[in-house]
Amino acid sequence: GPLLGAKLLCLGCVALAGWATWRFLRDYAQLQLGAALGALDYMLGPQMNTQLRREEHLVIVVALVFPPLVLRALWALAQRAGAREILGLALLSSLFVLCNAKMAVCFFPLGVAFLGCLAWGAPDPQAQLRKGLPWVALLVGVLAVLPLLPGLREQGFSTLFADDPLAEARIAGIDERLRGRVPDRGDAVSRR
């Protein structure tokens, strides 16, 4: 049924996210074992595990495929700012924004920090990035931001970020498992 299809899609996305992480780390760090361990950690980490339990958050699992792909595309753009690299980064970034705009906005500072690391090195990556990033920004604006503007207007330009960051952990039952390990401050105060 539809639930089985959604779960199979998510398992495929977890595998794709692991492959993307392995590919990025292998190309960037040049370490086979480190890339394999990083991919395994990304696939089995709490960001995947928590979201796989809830059917309505399957889109987050799909969106988690994009961060390693975007980072690898940024790295490729720093190597060579050709049309293929510019278009690849623009398409991946646009798909990420269209898949889950809130997650893409939260990922943005990490991408900027990674750009800083790339630009810190030799002057050649800086020239490549200066050449390619304006085109990427323009394409992402046209492919992702413009289509989202009507929906953002309908929501009254609100971000819809949750006020309680631990609400999902409570719903997933994580807080119940941690209660036995972490002392409850309320109980300690009430006993005094």
What features would you describe in this structure?
With about 190 residues, the protein is mostly helical. About 80% of the residues lie in helices and about 0% in strands. It is globular, with a radius of gyration of 20 Å. The relative contact order is 0.09. The model is unreliable at about 190 (pLDDT under 50).
Number of helices: 11
**What is the ordering of alpha helices and beta strands?**
HHHHHHHHHHH
User: SS-based structural class?
Assistant: mainly alpha
Radius of gyration: 20 Å
For the residues shown, what is the average pLDDT?
81
Tally of DSSP β-strands: 0
Summarize the biggest pleated sheet.
none
Rounded to the nearest angstrom, the distance between the terminal CA atoms is 54 Å
Which runs of at least 5 residues are low in confidence (pLDDT < 50)?
Answer: 188-192
What general form does the structure show? Answer: globular
Percent range of helical residues = over 70%
SS strand fraction = under 5%
